Amino acid sequence: MFTFKWKRIGLIAGLSLSLIAAGCGQDNTDDTTNDAESGGDGTNVGEEVDYTITGIEPGAGITEATDNALKEYENLAGWEQQNSSTTAMLTALADAIENEEPIVIAGWSPHFKFAKYDLKYLEDPKGVYGDVEYISTIVRKGLKEEKPEAYKILDRFHWETEDMESVMLAAQDMEFEKAAQQWVDENQEKVAEWTKGVEPVDGTSIELVLTPWDTERSSAHVAKIVLEEQGFEVKLTPVDPSIMFQAIAEGDGDASLAPWLPATHGAFYEKFEGEFEDLGENLKGAKIGLVVPTYMDIDSIEDLKPAE
Q1: What is the DSSP letter of 301?
Q2: Ranges for the ABC-type glycine betaine transport system substrate-binding domain (predicted)?
Q3: Total-model pTM
Q4: CA separation (Å) from 123 to 1, 39, 129, 304?
Q5: Which fold has domain 133-288?
Q6: Of 114, 250, 265, 281, whose CA is between 20 and 30 Å from 287?
């Protein structure tokens, strides 16, 4: 459905593969320097990371939230967010952890990085990043009447943070399609709850709109497999968050399992509210914020110091 409309509503978000440089520590035995390398009390962390928060794509909700944090926290004066891609952020994070160097990233969960590394969120006293969030399912108006069997499955689709993270972690060693199939094969009881009483269809098409990040790839690919097992022909279309809401609101896509609410995508939700149907949460416990390795001895955004 999108083939002829993308030129009208915007560009599909692409993923840049350029790398973000991580801050480098010095290897010596001076107590002050070692304190800075481990995070210390925040005094020298800024210098070690060049007063830079390692971010992801410019169109992400967490990117906008981090821009707001830079404005709201006076102690972040002189700091900047360096944006490139999720891949670049993860590369910088892996390099920093391998060398036990300081790094501050714009992070979110569910994500496999929390299963792979020892990480922690910095406290957010001003509440810029909001409370714990949920991921919702939205569908275009009329889907229930036109494709009732797909509607039933999407309305029932709900899983846990651990489920999503297991797919993301497996996808580091295989294609997302295979990682999702592996999860479906290992969780037939849960899948059966989603498909109970659903009548098979014969090639009915359905388009799922997602944002181009691993969390949304996980849910979209699992839903795709489950729908295909019921006879649907499923197309996945990755787009920028603002376009995701517009696509469902205007009927250019059928459904999305990707909205993070109430904060991350709240502005987009409000812009198109009433023009789509919200089926409610498909995952609880989502969270965004500034993240650091646990070896860094800082606990709050307010522990970071302004640039000199």
Answers
A1: G
A2: 44-186, 205-305
A3: 0.72
A4: 43, 15, 10, 11
A5: Dipeptide-binding Protein; domain 3 (3.10.105)
A6: 250
Lowest mean pLDDT of 4-18, 67-81, 198-212, 227-241, name the range.
4-18
* Residues forming beta bridges with residue 255, ordered by sequence position: 139, 208
For residue 187, give Cα distances in angstroms to 214, 249, 264. Answer: 20, 32, 29
For domain 11-131+289-303, the CATH class is: alpha beta
Residues in the chain: 308
Q: What confidence tens digit (pLDDT) does each residue in 202-232 have? A: 999 999 999 988 899 999 999 999 999 999 9
Look-up: residue for tokens 């970071």? 304
Spatial distance between the Cα atoms of 308 and 305, rounded to a whole number of angstroms:
9
110 upstream amide cis, omega within 30 of 0: yes
For tokens 């009447």, what's the residue?
Answer: 145
Residue 40 has pLDDT above 70, yes or no: no
Which tens digits make up the pLDDT trace of 110-135? 999 998 899 999 999 999 998 889 99
Where in the chain are the domains? 11-131+289-303, 133-288
d(CA 169, CA 179): 9
Nearest Cα neighbor of 195 from 164, 161, 226 is 226
Where do the DSSP E strands lie in the chain? Answer: 52-54, 80-82, 105-109, 119-121, 133-139, 205-210, 233-238, 255-256, 260-261, 277-293
Contact 16, 85 (CB under 8 A): yes
Residue 282 pLDDT > 90, yes or no? yes
Predicted pLDDT of residue 42: 47
Omega before residue 259 within 30° of 0, cis: no
Which DSSP symbol is given to 110? S
Q: Name the token pair of 117.
A: 């590394």
Dist CA 147 CA 1 (whole Å): 15
